[in-house]
Each structure stands twice: as structure tokens, then as C-alpha cells.
UniProtKB/TrEMBL annotation, chain A:
GO cellular component, one term: cytoplasm
Compartment(s) where it occurs, according to its Swiss-Prot or TrEMBL record: Cytoplasm
Subunit text: Supercomplex made of cofactors A to E. Cofactors A and D function by capturing and stabilizing tubulin in a quasi-native conformation. Cofactor E binds to the cofactor D-tubulin complex; interaction with cofactor C then causes the release of tubulin polypeptides that are committed to the native state.
Taxonomy, superkingdom: Eukaryota
Alphabetized Pfam families for the sequence: TBCC (PF07986), TBCC_N (PF16752)
Organism expressing this protein natively: Helianthus annuus
Nucleotidyltransferase listed as a keyword: no
Gene name in the database record: POR
Keywords assigned: Acetylation, Chaperone, Cytoplasm
Domain C-CAP/cofactor C-like: 195-365
Name of the featured protein: Cyclase-associated protein CAP/septum formation inhibitor MinC
Protein family membership: Belongs to the TBCC family.
Classification via PANTHER family: TUBULIN FOLDING COFACTOR C, TUBULIN-SPECIFIC CHAPERONE C
GO BP of this protein: microtubule cytoskeleton organization; post-chaperonin tubulin folding pathway; protein folding; tubulin complex assembly
TrEMBL record, chain B:
Organism annotation: Helianthus annuus
Alphabetized UniProt keyword annotations: GTP-binding, Lipoprotein, Magnesium, Metal-binding, Myristate, Nucleotide-binding
InterPro entries with a match to the protein in the record: Arl2, ARL2/3, P-loop_NTPase, Small_GTP-bd, Small_GTPase_ARF/SAR
Keyword presence, GTP-binding: yes
One CC-aspect GO term: microtubule cytoskeleton
Residue numbers binding Mg(2+): 30, 47
Protein name as annotated: ADP-ribosylation factor-like protein 2
SUPFAM superfamilies (UniProt xref): P-loop containing nucleoside triphosphate hydrolases
SMART domains (UniProt xref): ARF (SM00177), RAB (SM00175), SAR (SM00178)
């Protein structure tokens, strides 16, 4: 990308410098520096409006054709300048180079435009049927003329005069606009809302239909995924074999103990109270929401804990566990045992404890100091390895 | 020359696209980005903040902004809306309980004026998980058909775990943005 840009630039330079290259390569021309030197010399002389024939021979090469060409050029330049100067001092236009005369001219035109504006306004008030279009066009033209006058003379006018006259012009334009819109308001271009072509009843029907459709779609019920739901005081056990189960859900459980053996893909936990959850390795992620007074012994690649209160988590995790809107949560390493857990852990790539369980990110505590919402469970208070 | 044509010209030269990845937490945004970039996806922590990945895709340079989806940081999504060419909304197709949340957040996002010109790619992720909803079902739940007719959108089923469907989705997104912004060369 950068290279392309560089190329483009270099091509541009070549194109610009091409004539110079040619002139340099031709031996019968004077060297480039000399030409430049002469041009620099010429500039001030023409500007000061002085004939400078002496400069032409100064330091010139002896080539007679060059000399001739050069003399012709000087003459052309001085003629041009002469004609400019004489144009400027043209007596038939008194406005030139005099602020006073410019102001006089400007004020006159301005007054003329203003008076015709009020005239048009009066006419339109008394006789609205009269066609004022040519009048308005004429005024717009004379405002343009006035603008041109300012532009032409701006080079010698004091900045204040330029600004004030430009202001006057823009005021005039505004007045003209308002008059125009009053006189022939419909001529002005504007975006308009087209009136709806559909008859009213059809519209209401479609809206109703859409609403009905929406209701139907919002009530679109998806099938439930496998899991344990709405139980109290139970021991719930499940064994997964192979990849038979993808996701598993635990929701609305109170005073339950849940034992999930084997590998599975993902676990969703929601609204648990005073439960004990023991699970084998989860290949994907575990999402835990709204739990209170629970004990978790879980292993997963990713663990997210939301809205948890006073719960203990014994984790093995490949990445950093996170908590959000939680308090009083404590963390310790995974301690679980069942037949074949080693191979399950290996299969899920969770066989080593990377120590990530202790690197908890609290999304509501973005400071360097330890978050008050979670802590590491002291060794003495940890449970023994659980056998399920 | 209008501002739009100037912007188009600049973009045409740079062939850059800005893509914003958003979606609920746990939907797999970071995994998708890393997978498509050919990086290791086995250790990914939930995104605290955002990641930017710049990658070359076809002849375009994609700047992918992968913004964390946790609830606490969703309010910061709007800081990334400016100049977004493509919006990728990632859905965890196996998380049935939070589909309502997902719909709510997506609807909010699509109301955003700064995103009104962006092409929308919906990734129905985690298709490899048994029991996940199909892209068609996700489209129904999210009511994508009721979207503003001027929006360019498409839903693609994918699995960031296996990589399936990711290229199909990005191919569509890049082509769609290119056809809007860049003159065919």
C-alpha cells in the first residue's frame, strides 16, 4: 500500500521535472542555474515597473539565439505590465485604487438594490397576483454585480471595508431570499413528504398484521435443553458418555446435590440456593448466574460467575475465571474424584492445574488492589477431595 | 465533491474495513477472531476491555474490534460505533435461556444511528454443540426478518471451536462491505 503511494509520488515528480530534464540534456542551452538566476533578476525589475535592459546581457551566454529570445521575453513582460498599469489608471473607471470612490459606488448600488427590494415588497403586498419574477431576477443579478465589485477591489481595500461590504452583501442576499419566498413561496426547492398513496384502512391492516406476526414470533418457544430444573432437597446424578450431550442446564434448584460425571461441552447454571455441584470436565464454558450459599467443584476452559453471593468455587480453569456483581465468593483448586476422571480431564485438555483458579477478574473492580468481592479460600477451610 | 465521495476515495486507497464484534458474554467473539486469524484458541479468558486484530483478508485489511460482552461493560460498546463498516453479532446458539437478552441487546444496537450503514453478520455460534439451535431458529427468535429493509444482513451458522462457517460469514461480510464502499476494480 505504501509502496503504491510512493510510486505515485515519484511519477508526479517526473512529470513535473520532465521539461527541465530536456533542457538540461540539450548542450546548446545555458545551464539551468543560469536561467534561474536570470529569472530571479527579472522578477523585481518587472514588478517595480522599470525597464532593465542591462540585466539581459549580464552573465548571458554568447549564443545569439538565446539572447534574442531573452530580449523578446523581457519586452513581452514589460508590455504586459505596462498594459496592466495603464488599465488600472483608466480614467473612465474612477473607483480604482481609491477606497473612497469604491465606497461611494458600493453605497449607491446598495441603496438602489434596497429601494427596489422594498418596492417589490410593497407591490407584492398590494397586488399579489402581479408577476415579480423578472424584478427579483434583476435584483439577484445586481447583487452578484456588487459582489464582483468587492472582489475586484479587495486587493487594495482595507480589511475592515472588505468585511463590512461582504456582510452587507450577505444581508442583501438574505433579504432577497426572504422577499422571494414571500412573493413566490412555492418556487423554492425543498424536500417534501409525498402523501401516502395507500388508503388509510390498508395501512392499519398492515400494521395490525405486523403486530400479530410479532406477537407470534416473540412467543416462538424453543425446546428446552437437557438439565435439572426446579428441584428441592434432592440428589441429582447424571453420567455422560462420549459426546452424547452438548449443553446441560441446572436451574432453580434449592438444597440439592448435583453430581455430573464424564465430559460434556457446556454448562449453564441459573438460580441456585444452598446447593452442592460436582462436575466432570467441561470442554467449553460454564456460565453461573444468581447463586447463593452454594459449593461448586467444577472444571472448564472458561468460567463466568454473575450475581453470586457467599459461595465457594473449587475450580480448574484454563483461563482466568471472572466474577460480575458478586460478593463473598471464595476460590480454591479443583478437588474431585470419580472413576475415569483422569482420562476425562486429559480428553478435555484440563489435566494440569495451571493455577488460573486464583487469577480471578472482577469486572466491577478494575483497580490494581485486591477486589473486596472475592478471596482465596484459606487452606484450613477447604473441603477434602470429593468422591462422587 | 461531497464528503461521502471524499471518504469513499480515502477508503478505496486504503482498502481498510472496520469490523465490530459484539454479542453477549460467553458467545465466542474472541474465539472467532483468534480462530480466523489462525491463533491458539485453547486458552482464552473472558475479555476485560477489548482486543483489536488487524488482518489481511483477500485484498482488504480488516481491523477487527472485539469488545467484551460482560453486562458491566456493554455500556461501553457505544464508544466503538464510530466508522464501523461491518457489525458482527455473535450468538451462543446453545444458550437458550439468554436468547431474550440477546434479542434485547441486538435490537438496542440496531437502533444506533452510527451503525445504521453497517452490514450486519449474525453468527449463530457453537453449532458443534449438540442441542444448539440452528441458524434458522436463531433468526426466528431474534426476529431478524422484521429488520429495517435497508440493512444488509445475513445469518450464518458457525463453530468457533471447529472453525466451520467462519470463512463463509466473513466472505459475505467483506464482499458486502466492499460492494458498498469500494468501486469494483
Amino acid at each position: 500500500m505504501l509502496n503504491q503511494r510512493d510510486q505515485q509520488v515519484s511519477i508526479d515528480i517526473k512529470q513535473v521535472s520532465n521539461p527541465l530534464h530536456i533542457s538540461l540534456s540539450r548542450t546548446d542551452r545555458p545551464p539551468l542555474w543560469r536561467l534561474q538566476h536570470q529569472l530571479i533578476k527579472l522578477l523585481p525589475t518587472t514588478m517595480n515597473d522599470q525597464q532593465a535592459p542591462s540585466a539581459t546581457t549580464d552573465g548571458m551566454s554568447t549564443d545569439p539565439t538565446i539572447q534574442r529570445k531573452h530580449a523578446a521575453m523581457i519586452e513581452r513582460l514589460s508590455n504586459l505590465h505596462q498594459s496592466r498599469v495603464s488599465n488600472k489608471t483608466d480614467p473612465k473607471d474612477p473607483s480604482f485604487e481609491s477606497t473612497k470612490s469604491f465606497l461611494l459606488l458600493f453605497t449607491n448600488s446598495k441603496q438602489a438594490i434596497e429601494s427596489s427590494l422594498t418596492q417589490v415588497q410593497q407591490i407584492s403586498d398590494t397586488d399579489p397576483t402581479q408577476d415579480l419574477k423578472p424584478e427579483l431576477e434583476k435584483m439577484s443579478l445586481s447583487i452578484t454585480e456588487l459582489e464582483k465589485l468587492v472582489a475586484e477591489n479587495s486587493y487594495f481595500l482595507p480589511p475592515y471595508e472588505v468585511r463590512s461590504s461582504l456582510k452587507t452583501i450577505s444581508d442583501l442576499k438574505q433579504t432577497l431570499d426572504s422577499v422571494t419566498s414571500k412573493v413566490k413561496p412555492r418556487k423554492k426547492f425543498s424536500f417534501k413528504n409525498r402523501p401516502a398513496k395507500k388508503p388509510e384502512p390498508a395501512n392499519t391492516i398492515t400494521i395490525e398484521a405486523i403486530e400479530n406476526e410479532r406477537e407470534q414470533q416473540s412467543s416462538y418457544k424453543v425446546k428446552d435443553s437437557p438439565g435439572f430444573r426446579s428441584k428441592e432437597n434432592e440428589i441429582l446424578t447424571k453420567e455422560f458418555k462420549g459426546s452424547e450431550i452438548g449443553e446441560f442446564v441446572l436451574s432453580d434448584l434449592t438444597n440439592c446435590e448435583v453430581r455430573l460425571r464424564g465430559c460434556f461441552r457446556t454448562l449453564f447454571i441459573n438460580r441456585l440456593k444452598n446447593c452442592k455441584i460436582y462436575t466432570g470436565p467441561v470442554l467449553g464454558s460454564i456460565l453461573i448466574e444468581e447463586v447463593e450459599g452454594c459449593l461448586f467443584v467444577v472444571a472448564s476452559h472458561q468460567i463466568r460467575i454473575h450475581d453470586a453471593k457467599e459461595s465457594d468455587f473449587y475450580l480448574r480453569c484454563r483461563s482466568r475465571p471472572i466474577i460480575e456483581r458478586s460478593s463473598g465468593v471464595r476460590f480454591a483448586p479443583y478437588r474431585l474424584c470419580y472413576d475415569g476422571i483422569e482420562s476425562d480431564l486429559r480428553e478435555s485438555n484440563l489435566d494440569d492445574d495451571t493455577g488460573s483458579w486464583a487469577n480471578v477478574d472482577d469486572f466491577q473492580w478494575l483497580r490494581a488492589v485486591q477486589s473486596p468481592n472475592w478471596s482465596i479460600l484459606p487452606e484450613s477451610q477447604r473441603i477434602d477431595t470429593v468422591n462422587i | 465533491m461531497g464528503l461521502l465521495s471524499i471518504i469513499r476515495k480515502i477508503k478505496r486507497k486504503e482498502k481498510e474495513m472496520r469490523i465490530l464484534m459484539v454479542g453477549l458474554d460467553n458467545s465466542g467473539k474472541t474465539t472467532i477472531v483468534l480462530k480466523i486469524n489462525g491463533e491458539d484458541t485453547s486458552v482464552i479468558s473472558p475479555t476485560l476491555g477489548f482486543n483489536i486484530k488487524t488482518m489481511t483478508y483477500d485484498k482488504y485489511t480488516l481491523n477487527i474490534w472485539d469488545v467484551g460482552g460482560q453486562k458491566t461493560i456493554r455500556s461501553y460498546w457505544r464508544n466503538y460505533f464510530e466508522q464501523t463498516d461491518g457489525l458482527v453479532w455473535v450468538v451462543d446458539s446453545s444458550d437458550l435461556r439468554r436468547l431474550d437478552d440477546c434479542k434485547f441487546e441486538l435490537d438496542n444496537l440496531l437502533k444506533e444511528e452510527r451503525l445504521s450503514g453497517a452490514s450486519l453478520l449474525v453468527f449463530a455460534n457453537k453449532q458443534d454443540i449438540q442441542g444448539a439451535l440452528s441458524p434458522e431458529e436463531i433468526a426466528k427468535v431474534l426476529n431478524l426478518d422484521a429488520m429495517d429493509k435497508s440493512r444488509h444482513w445475513r445469518i450464518v451458522g458457525c463453530s468457533a471451536y471447529t472453525g466451520e462457517g467462519l470463512l463463509e460469514g466473513f466472505d459475505w461480510l467483506v464482499q458486502d462491505i466492499a460492494s458498498r464502499i469500494y468501486v469494483l476494480d
